[in-house]
Amino acid sequence: MTALLSVDKVGFVQRGNLKGIKRANSFELSPISFELNSGETLAIVGENGSGKSLLGKLLVGAEKPTSGNIYLNGQKLSPHNLKQRCLNIRMIFQHSNESLNPGITVAKILEEPLILNTQLTSSERKQKIMKTLNTVGLVNDHMYFYRHMLSDGQRQRLALAKALILDPLVIVADEPFAALDPSVRSQTINLIMKLQMELGLGFIFISHNLGIVRHISDRALILRHGQLVEIGKTEVIFNWPKSEYTEKLVMSHQSLVSPKV
């Protein structure tokens, strides 16, 4: 069975050299390989500076890898055909405000990718927008709202709608819950899990929150300083970590959630 998404030895090198002097902004993401199946969630875990957000950008085409290839349903994704990637791999960002234009309505925010990537008529685009809003728990009247008129939870639902509007196969979410309060975070997590089950999406979740990682992911990939530490089923990694680094991460999480005596 062909994997939905295959990452084959994808790496990235950011050169920060100037006349032989190594600068602080140099970074190397060592070659990484993994597969993602339809309906599966893979968590990418690591501390700040581990390269997890960079890996997400490589997947959606926001950055170009210096080595390796990415395949979608067995077809190689070419860096010269960004439209194919834009249609099939969509991203949700941590801070929804930064990805939502404050000067246009919700309808315009959602219509823009449809205009750029589909042949839908104006009427068909409106129907698609209403359907997508309803899918993420918003109502038709939200089409006429501006960003500042929405709550934090509604903005994150809009960011999810923006990711879903083109009917992608894979969603890459970079710390999508970090800015939400606990109650809204729980509602959003449950919504994403529900939609994944209904739509069969492949979901890549980038986070350092091990509680959420354990709750929603099937497998986890651990990064440290641009290096792949280990990858495996989430419960196996939590219960039987192979590396000392992963063990420390798990113990740190457990110390936070375990009741104090």
Automatic annotation (TrEMBL):
<keyword id="KW-0547">Nucleotide-binding</keyword>
<dbReference type="InterPro" id="IPR003439">
    <property type="entry name" value="ABC_transporter-like_ATP-bd"/>
</dbReference>
<dbReference type="InterPro" id="IPR050319">
    <property type="entry name" value="ABC_transp_ATP-bind"/>
</dbReference>
<feature type="domain" description="ABC transporter">
    <location>
        <begin position="13"/>
        <end position="250"/>
    </location>
</feature>
<keyword id="KW-0813">Transport</keyword>
<dbReference type="InterPro" id="IPR003593">
    <property type="entry name" value="AAA+_ATPase"/>
</dbReference>
<dbReference type="Pfam" id="PF00005">
    <property type="entry name" value="ABC_tran"/>
</dbReference>
<dbReference type="GO" id="GO:0005524">
    <property type="term" value="F:ATP binding"/>
</dbReference>
<protein>
    <submittedName>
        <fullName>ATP-binding cassette domain-containing protein</fullName>
    </submittedName>
</protein>
<dbReference type="InterPro" id="IPR027417">
    <property type="entry name" value="P-loop_NTPase"/>
</dbReference>
<keyword id="KW-0067">ATP-binding</keyword>
